Amino acid sequence: MSPVMTTRIALKALARNKMRTALTMLGMIIGVSAVITLVGLGNGAQARIEAQIKAGGTNLVTINAGNFTAGGVRGGSGAAATLTIDDVEAIRKEVPNVQYITPGVNMRGQVIAGNQNWSTRVQGTDVDFPLIREWPIRYGSFFSTQDVNSAAKVAVLGKTVSEQLFGPEVDPTGQVIRVRNQPFKVIGVMGSKGQAGMGDDQDDTLFAPYTTVQKKLMGQQYIQSITLSAANADATSDVSNAVSVVMRTQHKLANGDPDDFTVRTQEDIAEIRTAALDTMTNLLAGIAGVSLIVGGIGIMNIMLVSVTERTREIGIRMAIGAKGWDVQLQFLVEAVVISLLGGGIGIALGFGMADLATRFWEFPTQVPPNAVAMAFGFSAATGIIFGFYPARKAAALDPIVALRYE
Amino acid sequence: MSVISVRDLIKTYEVGEVKVHALRGVTLSIEQGEFVAATGPSGSGKSTLMHILGCLDHPTSGQYFLDGRDVARLSRNELAEVRNRKIGFVFQGFNLLSRTSALDNVELPLLYTEKSLKTAERHKRAMEALKAVGLSERAHHHPNQLSGGQQQRVAIARALINQPSLILADEPTGNLDSRTSVEVMGIFQRLNMEHGITVLLITHEHDIAEYATRIVSFKDGRIRDDVQVTNRRDADTELASMPAIA
């Protein structure tokens, strides 16, 4: 019998028992829609984090000092005093395609202005910083090379710091603030940059020349990080590799010695941040996948009932010339139709639920096309696997026994 | 050449501990164009014989040639093909697919035929078969909307659709009233005489057997008697003389 006819017969048989067909399908619908929704939510969250990190610029490369270990005492990343301004100069000179580069020295400090005070991150940096981050200036200007060379006590405030100390929409340039009891002149306020990938407020920062932070506030010579931007996004990984080579030479590391620094592109950072979420998404999809198996068992159950119930029909079909294969195919197609139809509805429902999540919780969702293909493929496979046994049971019936069945 | 030729057919069932000897050695030939009635009380083995002749069941021993072919050598699939192409079944309980129109029921054997016909051609042939049994105006009714006689006529149309050389009818009038029985026998007689189809009719009613040309009677799994009918009944003449039903 032609596959078209077999499908038509299967559809007719399913249409005769609409309620039962619908309930059997429900198992598949719930399983598939759960997979789609959860994968959609997970991927949406991932995409959001990735987008936020990449918003910092896809051509960014960050070099951090390595882990610090001394006699069993281990400091965190950046704790080792291995990066110096010489490294910055070496990279600037030897690595091609570096557009902007700045050292970074960070600390936390209490900032006082008049009768207001605020604890914030103090970031020592160079003049290239706003160019690297493409960060606009709201009031005044960023500090100059001269300020850096002379370790001038000047500060550029992040928007949050400025608002906390001087109130919103106030231009504080020219005012004097105190950082660790040293007076700094406010020469500018940065525009708003908003939250970073992990949710911390990038505007809650005070920027000063790195020389000033090193000498006046921290009293040391090393730097904690180097940030640079490649001339274009495509050159980023080449730049990143070249930086590693230069840094190893600079730090006189022998072959086989581990790096005492880490070089990361913005892409790498995004990957690390999303890896955990990826695991979570897979876990949720896996749990939802279990419901697909349960749905499949539901299909098998109903098909077995159906074969028993229609033993006489099978007998009639065999008596007038149906081969075992014809009968097997008929029941197999019924199972596959149930699972595929259920899978299709499940996919639509999954998209609907993902859409609702976006609309009502403002949670970004993104259903990847391969998840749809997988859900569809999985439901087809479920139909074939769980429909096979009942179909074979039907095909193996003895015509005369089936015909006499009451 | 004989349509059916069986020799020393034995069929033994095992029901629990007990052995049931349904056929104890049956030898029989049926020629092309014969109308044979197999009679006998229930348990005499006539139904078992029909199942074996219909390729629905295997004999325990003995030989069966259908159109000269040794059926014992055929595979499951080849047997299905034989049932599809050479044999038309008519059962006592009609055995139509429920919730399926008369037309679709009649078409069913065509769906299982190797070379598939176009839908239009299938419909045409099914309609012709329904017309031959006088039911063309009921083509789209479901079995539960038809009387017993009409259902049996649908079943006969289904048996005819693949132009079989042999029709096996197992108590075809068992569930029908006497007038409808005569009508159904009339159809069989016409098929036999006009189309030369060989008919094997299983029945326990002796008056129904008299529509055949030859009566083979069974008892305890053996043929007891095998006679030509001398005073054959003719369904069409009988129908004409019957009072019309209101």
How would you describe this protein?
The complex is a heterodimer of chains A (406) and B (246). Chain A is α+β, with helices and mostly antiparallel strands and 406 residues long. Chain A has two domains: 3-52 and 274-404, no CATH class; 83-259, no CATH class. Chain A has helices spanning 3-16, 18-55, 85-94, 129-133, 145-149, 159-166, 210-218, 236-250, 266-309, 311-319, 324-361, 369-395, 399-404, and strands at 60-65, 68-70, 73-75, 98-113, 116-125, 137-140, 154-157, 176-179, 182-190, 205-209, 225-230, 261-265. The mean pLDDT of chain A is 86. Chain B has eight helices and ten strands. Classes of the chains: A alpha+beta (406), B alpha/beta (246). Chains A and B meet through helix 1, helix 10, helix 11 and helix 13 of A and helix 2 and helix 3 of B.
Q: How would the blueprint of this fold be written?
A:
The complex is a heterodimer of chains A (406) and B (246).
Chain A: H1 3-16, H2 18-55, E1 60-65, E2 68-70, E3 73-75, H3 85-94, E4 98-113, E5 116-125, H4 129-133, E6 137-140, H5 145-149, E7 154-157, H6 159-166, E8 176-179, E9 182-190, E10 205-209, H7 210-218, E11 225-230, H8 236-250, E12 261-265, H9 266-309, H10 311-319, H11 324-361, H12 369-395, H13 399-404
Helix pairs in contact in A: 1-11, 2-9, 2-11, 2-12, 3-8, 9-11, 9-12, 11-12
Chain B: E1 2-15, E2 18-31, E3 35-39, H1 46-53, E4 61-66, E5 69-70, H2 76-85, E6 87-90, H3 102-111, H4 119-132, H5 148-160, E7 166-170, H6 178-195, E8 198-202, H7 206-209, E9 214-219, E10 222-228, H8 235-241
Parallel strand pairs in B: 3-8, 3-9, 6-7, 7-8
Antiparallel strand pairs in B: 1-2, 1-4, 4-5, 9-10
